Amino acid sequence: MKILFVSNKSVYSGAAVGGAETSMSVMAEEMACLNHTVVYLAQNPKQVQAIQQCKVSGVQVVQYRPLKLPTLGMPILRRWSRNLLHRQQQRVFYAIIRQYDIDAIYAFGSVTYELLRLREQKQLRFKLMHRVAGVTRKERGATPNPERVRRSEYGFTHADCINFQSEQHRESYLEIAQNVSKLKFTSFIHDIGIHPSFFDYPLSQRCGSVFQLVCIMRFSERKRQDLLVEALHQLNQPGIKLTFVGEGPERKSLEARVKAYGLESQIIFKGFLSRTQLQQELAQASLYCHPVDYEPQSKALWEAMASKVPILASDVATISNLITEGVNGYLCNNTVEGWRNKLELIYNQEDSNSLIQQAYNDVLAAAHPQQNIRKYTAKFEQLVHEKG
Question: Angle between the 111-122 and 146-158 helix axes, to the nearest 10 degrees?
Answer without folding.
Answer: 60
